[in-house]
Amino acid sequence: MNSTRFRPAFLAAFAATAFVGAAQAADIKIGVAEALSGGAAQYGTAIRNGFQLATDEINAAGGINGNKIVLVVEDEQGKKEDAINVFKKLIFQDNVLMVFGPTLSNSAQAADPIAQAAKTVAFGTSNTADGITSIGDYVFRNSVTEADVLPETLRVATKHANVKKVAVLYGNDDVFTKSGYDNFKKALEDAKMPVTTTETFAKGDVDFKAQLTKIKATNPDAIVLSALIAEGAPIMVQARQLGINVPFIGGNGMNSVKIFDLAKGASDKLYVGSPWSASNATPENTKFIKAYTAKYNGAPDQFAAQAYDGMYIAAQAIKAVKLTGALPADRAALRDALPNVKWTGATGAFAFTRANDKAGKPAGYDAKQQAIVSVTKGTQFEI
Ligand code: 1QQ
Predict the structure, then answer these.
(1) What global pTM score does this model have?
(2) Residue 354's pLDDT is what?
(3) How far is CA 93 from CA 217, 225, 292, 367, in A?
(4) H/E element holding 382?
(5) b/e string for 11-43 if b means 16 or more Cβ within 10 A?
(6) Residue 121: left (phi > 0), alpha (psi -120 to 50), or beta?
């Protein structure tokens, strides 16, 4: 199942460094590959902050079995070529124990095979498209998938806003926006919801008036939108400019408080599902929100929360592994330990399950425990 066959060669290659200092406290290097610039930086920055906060807390409490976590942070710019390069640097040059990221499913689909081939854990905290974890057994995520969330988002939003027919708008050149579309389409079919028209856009588009004008002519009660925020925010602004005032029903891409900054009043009547809620008053979440707000001088969002929990989940697994300093063995041992972690964090109780379906559903998802949130300036509807 794991890398036994390859161990002797790797051990020989790493022998020089493997046992030096193994007896004393050593830093645990963890790679963080996130979009810190470009259109996906809205998400990536929150994610990086979540990792940093959890790391600081873990280190302040003595580290993991006495060893401190050291983050090696790289900007993958939300682009798949850069995600591949950053993964290679972290895995082969920096010799990190594992890699968090990348931010977008689009990049994960390109970069995670590098980690899989190098038998190094790639842990996504924000990858929600179908099929990510089916890349291989070194690929993990704690992000709740579109396949899980969208049917509930649709159910709650259409009921609450009394929606009888919808138009659909999605990005057709991105793994996440396409997967969101596929899952919305299925959920709409299952709900027998009539679709007035389906329109598409591409990454980097800035003018959506042609699609929105067509949508307006079909007179839908809501617009189902699978978009990243870089396109999603201007789409909402331009829709309102065209006099389209019906609700938008979005996926994870619209699930950021940045939508309020970017689209301002035009972001009213946006429904999104979320695995995290600011108003969930558990001790873990209250502690997270307080610490995050104090450190970063601004409110966290679900991207920060899932990253924060992701780091604690990894720390539990690392704690259970007896690190030897021999990187291939440690990487494999971490991979074997991760599935056993159970953790209650800012997003609630979490456990991994093995994904056997195409959607690669993450584990520990409990639809009842997770809140569906409508982002109409902070209004929330628990289901
Ligand atoms: C994905 C997403 C994006 C919204 C991540 C920020 O969910 O690409 O899977």
Answers:
(1) 0.88
(2) 78
(3) 55, 40, 31, 41
(4) none
(5) eeebeeebeeeeeeeeebbbbbbbbbebbbbbb
(6) beta
pLDDT exceeds cutoff 90 at 314: yes
Mean pLDDT of the chain: 88
Q: What's the CA gap between 23 and 275, in Å, rounded?
A: 41
CB 122 within 8 A of CB 99: yes
Question: Rounded to the nearest whole angstrom, what is the distance from the C-alpha of residue 92 to the centroid of ligand 1?
Answer: 26
Distance CA 215, CA 202 (A): 17
Q: Is 43 in the pocket of ligand 1 (CB under 6 A)?
A: yes
Q: What radius of gyration, in Å, describes the C-alpha atoms of the chain?
A: 21
d(CA 136, ligand 1 centre) in Å: 19
Q: Whose CA is nearest to atom 4 of ligand 1?
A: 253
Instruction: Among 80, 127, 130, name the best residue to mutate to test ligand 1's pocket (greatest count of ligand atoms within 8 A of Cβ).
Output: 127
The one-character DSSP state at 64 is B
pLDDT in tens, 251-272: 999 998 888 889 999 999 999 9
